[in-house]
Hints:
By secondary structure, the protein is mainly alpha-helical. It folds into two domains: 2-86; 106-286, hpI Integrase, Chain A. 60% of the residues lie in helices and 6% in strands. It has helices at residues 6-18, 23-40, 45-54, 58-73, 78-86, 106-115, 121-136, 140-143, 184-197, 201-208, 218-233, 240-252, 257-264, 269-286, and strands at residues 2-3, 42-43, 162-167, 178-183. It has a two-stranded antiparallel sheet. α12 (240-252) packs antiparallel against α13, α12 (240-252) crosses α14 and α13 packs across α14. It is elongated.
Amino acid sequence: MIFLNSEVEKALVSFLDANNLDVKTKSKYLEFYYKFANVHGELNQKTLDEFLKYNNNSPSRAMLRHLINSIGRWDFPQGILGEVVKLDIPRRTGRKEKKDPLHLDFKELEYLIEHMTGDSIIEERNRLAILTQWWGALRVSEVLGIGIKELETEHYNKDEEFQRIKLRSESTKFGKEGYCYIPTDVYYKITEYLKRRCRINSFMQKLDLGENIWGFNKSAYDKLVRKKTKAILGRAYNTHSLRHGRGTDLIKKGVPIEKVKEILRHKDISSTQIYVHLSDSDIKESLK
Length: 288
């Protein structure tokens, strides 16, 4: 058994130094080494394969080769050297592995909204559209299909924790009307936003014609989400990552998968199973 301890780290650093690598390259290899060591703690074929499953890129593969070579050239017991010789870094086949879909978790959502500052109508619109999609676990077509009638303000109850929004049949994936539920405070802010924006006659006319309450199309909305998440979170998330985030959040909270299926409006429960996997991945990630 080869534990990734300080002695192994010392061997790797010495090996990298002997190869006269530039500082940036050396730092990148050590970054992947620390990630490998912190997650797996030891080097064997199983941990090597598991690491490459999620880090199958050139720097991580090069790091593993350097690690194996450094152990082989260091003053380790013969038994350890014998184990190292047996290790194999599988060749890349060129086939891209299927990655888990991105999901924006609740903490990221809070941080994102907190830092989307500004008091203008448009800035408020941007925040509310993202909050509505996340909380409602909406597909992009569904969030952009919300018109003034879909709010059903006649059913608003300030004492309820959540308010429902109707989903048009033409905006849903399977052509059936449905409902989503968002927090009452978000719903109330939408009504206040609309009061401000409806002072603009041209916007009011568009609402009367059945256009969505946000005033932008799919391309503009997707661009907004990518731009804001990249600037604030350091990573560009797409619009569907909001829906994935809510689905994963529900699973992590212990909501039965059958109920999550209903909330996400999946036709088959096999589609909902991905969120169980995403939740497991999130737990593993927190252990790193």
